[in-house]
Write a structure and sequence with these properties.
- The radius of gyration is 22 Å and the shape is globular.
- The protein has helices at about 120-125, 250-255, 300-305; strands at about 40-45, 45-50, 55-60, 65-70, 75, 75-85, 130-145, 145-155, 165, 170-175, 180-185, 195-200, 210-220, 225-230, 245-250, 270-275, 285-295, 320-325, 350-355.
- By secondary structure, it is mainly beta.
- It starts with about 40 loop residues before the first strand and ends with a strand.
Length: about 350
């Protein structure tokens, strides 16, 4: 801080800052036993229903997807939680220079771009924009006062398919390009959802992914955002050190970035938790067992992907929330995304906790 007024800034102006982690003090809070009564497990019209005091969660019995979360009588989820490896391409991913380090895509062109070195062409060619889920197993049971739900599925990109193949000199079987994933849910008596998610890429994959993590849509009333991570502005893996780690507050309008070309925006990195609430302070908190990145916007990812101009964005609807285990950086025009800032198609195992917030 400046001690006195200068020609270029007044006294009290911040000249520089830094943060460092006190690793010896960085001890996780002890796990607290869940409060509340017993969780009831029932089946209803193709749904697995876990309900308790003031909450009801519904899982599709065929796919195992969490499709509904009613808390205090109000629906909070409008689109199921699922694997996500897509983001609306950044401007740099639509630029020919940026994709040179990725080589040439398998197909030529798309839309008005029409050339194979555009990085987004690799993502589209791999079918990352549309994942098709193939359910493998869904099991639900009561355990003590809680409920456990175990799900396994295969997430195949749009161009992916199952096929018979010779896997090695002695074994033949089914082969595919896609993601083998399991969801292990635990629902506690206080309404807390704990998810252990494991995802394993299989077969041929692009050199790197735009992102890998989870996505879901929340009711449009949950427009207030609070998080513990880097902020208050947006940050990406390759441009984040200028943003402090702290507790920040914002909302859907403040987090909107009116880029000339609509694209993914508003990422917050190194987050420990994020809360989305309505005007009364009620909502949901999401946290993980390791720092994660998130962004939230009040339009659909499909709309954000296809819009060419800002006026084509349909904002003000349900909130899309992306929770990233890994995210590729922004890169620059000439050099693309450096290797250290790419989300490579590797296995991930993370624990996500979803906690109702009651005012």
């Amino acid at each position: 801080m400046l001690k006195r007024d200068e020609i270029w800034a007044p006294a009290g102006h911040e000249v520089s800052w830094d943060q460092f982690e006190l690793t010896g003090w960085n001890v996780s809070a002890p796990a607290q036993a869940a409060q509340g009564g017993r969780v009831r497990l029932t089946q209803d019209a193709g749904m697995i229903v876990a309900s308790g005091d003031g909450f009801e969660y519904r899982f599709d019995a065929g796919t195992g997807a969490l499709v509904s979360a009613r808390i205090g009588g109000r629906e909070r989820i409008t689109e199921p939680l699922r694997l996500n490896v897509w983001r609306a391409p950044l401007a740099n991913e639509l630029d020919g220079w940026n994709g040179m380090s990725a080589g040439r895509a398998e197909v030529t062109g798309y839309g008005s771009i029409g050339h194979r070195q555009v990085l987004a062409s690799h993502y589209y060619a791999a079918g990352l924009d549309k994942l098709n889920l193939i359910p493998v197993s869904v099991q639900a049971r009561e355990a003590g006062d809680g409920v456990l739900i175990d799900v396994r599925d295969l997430a195949l990109p749009a161009r992916g398919s199952m096929r018979d193949a010779q896997l090695d000199a002695y074994i033949s079987g089914r082969s595919y390009n896609g993601f083998d994933e399991t969801y292990s849910w635990r629902i506690a008596g206080d309404g807390t959802l704990t998810l252990k998610h494991r995802v394993h890429p299989q077969g041929q994959m692009p050199a790197w992914l735009p992102r890998i993590g989870l996505t879901l849509s929340l009711d449009k009333s949950l427009r207030e955002v609070e998080w513990y991570g880097r902020g208050p502005q947006a940050s990406y893996p390759d441009r984040k050190t200028g943003y402090r780690i702290g507790i920040w507050k914002s909302d859907m309008d403040e987090m909107y970035e009116p880029y000339l070309i609509p694209q993914d925006y508003g990422l917050r990195t190194d987050s420990r938790w994020v809360r989305l609430t309505d005007a009364s302070g009620a909502g949901l908190e999401f946290s993980m067992d390791s720092p994660f990145a998130f962004n939230a916007y009040d339009c659909t990812t499909d709309n954000l992907t296809k819009a060419v101009y800002q006026y084509q964005l349909v904002r003000g609807g349900d909130v899309t929330l992306n929770l990233d285990y890994a995210t590729s950086g922004v890169g620059d025009t000439a050099r693309g995304i450096f290797g250290a800032y790419r989300a490579y198609p590797t296995a991930h195992e993370h624990t996500l906790t979803i906690r109702p917030i009651r005012p």
